[in-house]
Design goal:
With 168 residues, the protein is an alpha/beta fold. The chain is 38% helix and 20% strand. It has a single domain, classed as 3-Layer(aba) Sandwich (Rossmann fold).
Amino acid sequence: MSKILITGGAGFIASHVADAYIALGHEVIIVDNLSTGEQSNVNPKAKFYLADITDEKAIKRIFEKEKPEIVNHHAAQKDVGFSVINPLDDAKVNILGSINIIVNSVNVGVKKTIYANSGGPLIDSEGRVVGVNTFKYVDASIEGMGFALESNEVKTTVNNLAKFQLLS
C-alpha cells in the first residue's frame, strides 16, 4: 500500500478521497489550514498536520518527515468572488502554494501528483458570461510547472480531477 499525502484533506471532497484511500489500506497524511475545511471531516486513521500550503518551512518539514509516495493536491482558495476582487491573494495560494507542493514533491521523490481543479466562465441566470474563474489561469500555471519538473528520473505529473482514480 502507498503513503499518500492529501492537501486540503479537511474539505468536503478531499476528506471523502482520504476515507476511500484509508478503506483501501493506504497510509494517509492530511495537510490543511482549516480555513474552509473542518477538523471533524478528518478521518481519525489519517495523520493530520495543521499547515498552510504557502508556508514553505512547514511544508518542507512535513514532506521531509513523511516522504509520501503520492500527493493528492486539493488545497486551494476556491472563492470565485474573492479571486476576482483579490487576484494577487488568490494567486499566492493557488499558484505559489501549489508550486510549493510540487517542488517539495520533487525534492522527496514523490512518484505521482494528482491535482484536483475546477473552474471556468461565470454565467448569469440568462446564460451570459459575466466573468472568468481564475482557476483556469492557475491550472495552466500549475500544469506547466508539473510537466517541467523532474527528479531522480521520476516525473511529477499533474492530472485533472476528471482523470482521478483511486489507487488499489
